[in-house]
Amino acid sequence: MSFVLKAAVGEPAQRASNPAVVDTVAAVIADVRANGDDAVRKYSEKFDGWSPESFRLSEDQVAEIVKSVPETVLDDLRFAQRQIRNFAQAQRDSIQDIEVETLPGVFLGHRNVPIDAAAAYVPGGRYPLTASAHMTVLTAKVAGVERVAATTPPNAGEAPPISVAAMHLAGADEIFVLGGVQAIAALALGTDTIDPVSILTGPGNAFVAEAKRQLFGEVGIDLFAGPTETLIVADDHADPFTIAVDLLSQAEHGPDSPCVLITTSEAVGRATLDHIEALLPGLVTNAIAGPAWRDHGQVHIVDTLAEAYTLADKFASEHVQILTEDPRQALTSMRNYGALFLGEGTCVPYGDKLIGTNHVLPTLGAANYTGGLWVGKFLKTLTYQEVRNLDTSAQLGEICGRVSRLEKFEGHARSGDLRAAKFGNAPLAWGDIPTRVTSDR
């Protein structure tokens, strides 16, 4: 018999932004649109107390900052980036240009062309998310993006060394120490000193997420961001202590982060609850993880794994961890998730930090219709067509004329009529084809 052992008591996150956030972000964007660099500097001073001579770091500044980072830290960053680069390159290699002949002399195709310029926002402050540099900057460069501008907020009046090092090692062409809405607006709209980009990527706080939402359409974005989500599917073979540790690993992302366990074993569910209560007091991030688990933690007991997978699909969670005897069954049993983590040897933090897959993933139910950030997001799939066989063009022209008139598009019909007449035997009912004129110029 299925039942809920622990229910969420807090209000779920909403797709709509707080009206105060919407208004604040709209005002900053409008100011940057009208006043460019002056507005950017004004808000950087107001929100971050940061007003250097240039927000963009010079090559010498970058080199000096990277030099200050311990070599062991740089080695770890390089290791993580090798894993992400290898997988991103395998993804890029799987994307092929195509051309097919669909009728005699009719060639249709597509080419995968990189976006010209991308922005990568790397969150900073007390929690510099260096992994976001790997996921955004590096993935864009593997896709072939010519210009990647990376930006991160200052930390206590300084450029954050580890974030700068991560952006540099990932291949950023430009590195800015600039945060918040002012950074997003400047990179989307352009100023006298900051060139605009074509896509905005990377996570951020509610203001950054809202800025991306408001600017979407003028530029592309990776995803609409929400709180980090995690869900575990477990059977009676799963270790409750491992489940507890792994749920709390994601609860510390934020006090509104949903953490869900779906299990076929009531004993596993109850033991997991006991372990979480024992672990939380000693967790350094208890002030965040505690409210997340209290308000948004859930434990569901179901009768079968089939029910577990069906329920998990309804959640469409960002991260789904499978702790069952046969974890790969989830590959064919589930379809709505940001990323799957199969088996006890695999934890969500591996995906967050270094295993190679991208950690920019859909939240708030978006996994029902999209996957996460990958090299394909930085590519435009552009189609083309060519009709070399003029007999086929005449045939297409006759049919084009008829179907266009069904829709009352006379101009479209005449383009088809012209080719039916020029290259075939169809009469041109609405005019005569002029004699071809050659120019002496």
TrEMBL record:
Transmembrane segment boundaries: none
Q: PROSITE patterns from the entry?
A: HISOL_DEHYDROGENASE (PS00611)
Q: What would be one Pfam family of this protein?
A: Histidinol_dh
SUPFAM superfamilies in the record = ALDH-like
Does the keyword Amino-acid biosynthesis belong to this entry? yes
Q: Which UniProt keywords apply?
A: Amino-acid biosynthesis, Histidine biosynthesis, Metal-binding, NAD, Oxidoreductase, Zinc
Cofactors demanded by this protein? Zn(2+)
- The yes or no answer to whether the keyword Ligase is present is no
Belongs to which family?
Belongs to the histidinol dehydrogenase family.
Any idea what this protein is called? Histidinol dehydrogenase
Q: What is the species of this protein?
A: Rhodococcus pseudokoreensis
